[in-house]
Amino acid sequence: MSVIYMLLALSIIVAIIFFAAFIISVKRGQYDDSYTPSVRMLFEDEVVDQEPENDPESNNQIQLNKSQNA
Protein backbone atom coordinates (compact mmCIF):
# COMPACT_ATOMS: atom_id res chain seq x y z
CA MET A 1 0.00 0.00 0.00
CA SER A 2 2.89 2.36 0.70
CA VAL A 3 4.10 1.87 -2.90
CA ILE A 4 0.85 3.35 -4.21
CA TYR A 5 1.30 6.46 -2.07
CA MET A 6 4.88 6.81 -3.21
CA LEU A 7 3.92 6.46 -6.90
CA LEU A 8 1.07 8.92 -6.46
CA ALA A 9 3.37 11.50 -4.90
CA LEU A 10 5.99 10.91 -7.60
CA SER A 11 3.43 11.32 -10.41
CA ILE A 12 2.15 14.57 -8.91
CA ILE A 13 5.71 15.90 -8.68
CA VAL A 14 6.39 14.96 -12.33
CA ALA A 15 3.11 16.58 -13.40
CA ILE A 16 4.04 19.80 -11.60
CA ILE A 17 7.46 19.80 -13.26
CA PHE A 18 5.93 19.40 -16.73
CA PHE A 19 3.33 22.08 -16.02
CA ALA A 20 6.06 24.50 -14.86
CA ALA A 21 8.11 23.75 -17.99
CA PHE A 22 5.04 24.45 -20.14
CA ILE A 23 4.36 27.78 -18.40
CA ILE A 24 8.00 28.84 -18.77
CA SER A 25 8.04 27.96 -22.47
CA VAL A 26 4.83 29.90 -23.10
CA LYS A 27 6.23 32.97 -21.34
CA ARG A 28 9.43 32.80 -23.39
CA GLY A 29 7.48 32.70 -26.66
CA GLN A 30 8.14 29.10 -27.63
CA TYR A 31 4.64 28.74 -29.10
CA ASP A 32 4.48 32.10 -30.90
CA ASP A 33 3.72 31.60 -34.55
CA SER A 34 5.98 33.79 -36.65
CA TYR A 35 5.61 31.81 -39.91
CA THR A 36 1.86 31.86 -40.59
CA PRO A 37 1.39 35.67 -40.79
CA SER A 38 4.06 35.88 -43.48
CA VAL A 39 2.32 33.37 -45.75
CA ARG A 40 -1.28 34.27 -44.93
CA MET A 41 -1.43 36.74 -47.80
CA LEU A 42 -0.70 33.92 -50.24
CA PHE A 43 -3.85 32.04 -49.26
CA GLU A 44 -6.39 34.86 -49.05
CA ASP A 45 -9.37 34.87 -51.39
CA GLU A 46 -9.18 37.15 -54.38
CA VAL A 47 -11.50 40.13 -54.51
CA VAL A 48 -13.75 40.03 -57.56
CA ASP A 49 -14.69 43.41 -59.01
CA GLN A 50 -18.36 43.77 -59.80
CA GLU A 51 -19.37 45.24 -63.12
CA PRO A 52 -20.68 48.79 -62.93
CA GLU A 53 -24.44 49.11 -63.43
CA ASN A 54 -24.15 51.79 -66.11
CA ASP A 55 -22.04 49.65 -68.43
CA PRO A 56 -23.83 49.45 -71.84
CA GLU A 57 -22.44 45.99 -72.58
CA SER A 58 -23.85 44.54 -69.37
CA ASN A 59 -27.24 46.10 -70.14
CA ASN A 60 -27.16 44.46 -73.59
CA GLN A 61 -26.37 41.10 -71.99
CA ILE A 62 -29.27 41.48 -69.57
CA GLN A 63 -31.62 42.36 -72.41
CA LEU A 64 -30.40 39.39 -74.48
CA ASN A 65 -30.92 37.03 -71.54
CA LYS A 66 -34.44 38.38 -70.99
CA SER A 67 -35.36 37.99 -74.66
CA GLN A 68 -34.02 34.41 -74.74
CA ASN A 69 -35.98 33.45 -71.62
CA ALA A 70 -39.25 34.95 -72.94
Structural commentary:
- The protein has three helices and no strands.
- The chain is an all-alpha fold.
- It has a domain at 1-30.
- The mean pLDDT is 78.
Name the overall outline. Answer: elongated
The overall average pLDDT, rounded, is 78
Sheet-strand content, in percent, reads under 5%
Order of helices and strands: HHH
Task: Give a brief rundown of this model.
This protein has helices spanning 2-27, 36-39, 56-69.
Task: Name a few traits of the molecule.
single chain, 3 helices, mainly alpha, 70 residues, elongated
Topology (elements, then pairings):
Blueprint: H1 2-27, H2 36-39, H3 56-69
